[in-house]
Amino acid sequence: MYLNELMEHLEYTCLQGNEHILVTDLVYDSRKVSKDSVFVCIAGTVADGHDYIPDAIEKGAVALVVEKDIDLPKDITVIRVVNARKALAFMSAAYFGYPAKKLTTIGITGTKGKTTTVYMIKSILENAGIRTGLIGTIETIIGDEIIPANNTTPESYIIQQTFARMVEAGIECVVMEASSQGFLHNRIDGFVFDYGVFTNLGYDHIGDKEHKDFDDYLRCKSMLFRQCKTGLINIDDEYASDIIKGHTCTIETFGFSEEADIRATNVRLVHEPGYLGVSYRVEGLMNFDVAIDIPGKFNVLNSLCAIAICRHFNVNEKDIVKALNKIRVRGRVELVPVNGNYSVMIDYAHNAMSLKSLLSTIREYNPKRLICVFGCGGNRSKDRRYLMGEISSNMADLTVVTSDNPRFEEPEDIINDIVTGVKKGKGEYIKIIDRREAIKYCIDNAREGDVIIIAGKGHEDYQEIKGIKYHMDDRELVLEALSK
């Protein structure tokens, strides 16, 4: 492929060399450079691709895409762009033959609910015979192939490569989580979604290595609705009108509000020993009854969102009801079977908004005691720790503060920050640094009618300490505690 063909939708300046040059590969990792490839120099938070230009040239790169002025041998073609990440996204789309145009693409953005919603959509569409791929926090799914995820939204090259593989595998539709970081770092540039979805917005992902402030977080979320054809908005969220400012898409709404195009009514919580669920009536653009084996009103909204999307695929009501009735999402209000009249639930809630929503939801089921086990990740905002501690203390009867992914911080320092917030609330608390022991303590002391929530890690099966990921799965820890 010729370099100028890869650059056809970009503004750029050819500083030297010939832009009509044949290149064999598109690379953004200098370790993967091969003969006659083009190397895109991305300035990341940890490393700057411009520093690896000598290595790339030595390995045979014939062209470079740069953001900086650099003196190089004249036999190297150098393309200057304002934003190398954006360039990589558009070049990747061209390199793989614009695969998004051959798929129906659905992007889900929001602070919470993205993961559950993408699995619900995939389940409904697959149940209706529509082959659907998935890109999300937990994994990427291409037919029968499952690829564990490193980021909620992968790098743009990986997204386009995945789209291309889906097309080759006969996939018709793809549903993906569109994170704020994905928009911030131009990972989702280079194509237009057929459908964009907004679930909700809360204070999260704000800090030195994330968004500079809440306005930047909101701005990045809203970008989806200038990059999709049809937008579906949770009308109940307080930021709904802010999210769609400047939108270029057709807008539809869902929610509990009577103003919503498709809405949930007659919500009923179902609570039995070891089981928490919810049922409701869909009204508006569609009309039928739904029951799901996942607890909480926020999952009413998640499933309602999935219904609103699948309406556009002409999926019949029977297929929707059948798919939602059997949906399970790993680490999202996931009930773990126990031999007792109490419930144990694992959830990914790792920020204040998610934890508050989760605890308030389960509180509505009137448990004998509500017990919350959680920690916070290291090298992240301390505000999150204070807020989560205070929320748990005010909403749970007992808070068990433990370790999450301490990364390069000391677990006890993180726990002490959480306890600072816990002490502002009225609930009882205990500190148990070892997560295994914390979970065992809860199981050993469970009473009839209790609901134990193990929050923060959800689908993760590791604990990150000093740059190393050690195997740790909350499900296994529960089963281990039960066996003892």
Report a brief summary of the structure.
The protein is α/β, with parallel strands linked by helices and 484 residues long. Helix content is 31%, strand content 25%.
Characterization of this structure:
- By secondary structure, the chain is α/β, with parallel strands linked by helices.
- It has 3 domains: 82 residues, Udp-n-acetylmuramoylalanyl-d-glutamate--2,6- Diaminopimelate Ligase, Chain: A, domain 1, CATH 3.40.1390; 227 residues, UDP-N-acetylmuramoyl-L-alanine:D-glutamate ligase, CATH 3.40.1190; 150 residues, Protein-Tyrosine Phosphatase, Chain A.
- The strands form 4 sheets. Strands 9-8-7-10-6-11-12-13-14-15-16 form an 11-stranded mixed sheet, with helices on both faces. It has a 6-stranded mixed sheet with strand order 17-18-22-19-20-21, with helices on both faces.
- Helix 12 links the parallel strand 19 and strand 20.
- Helix 3 runs parallel beside helix 5, helix 11 runs parallel beside helix 12 and helix 14 packs across helix 15.
- It is globular and about 75 Å long.
- 49% of the residues are buried.
Keywords:
6-stranded mixed sheet; globular; 11-stranded mixed sheet; 3 domains; Protein-Tyrosine Phosphatase, Chain A; alpha/beta
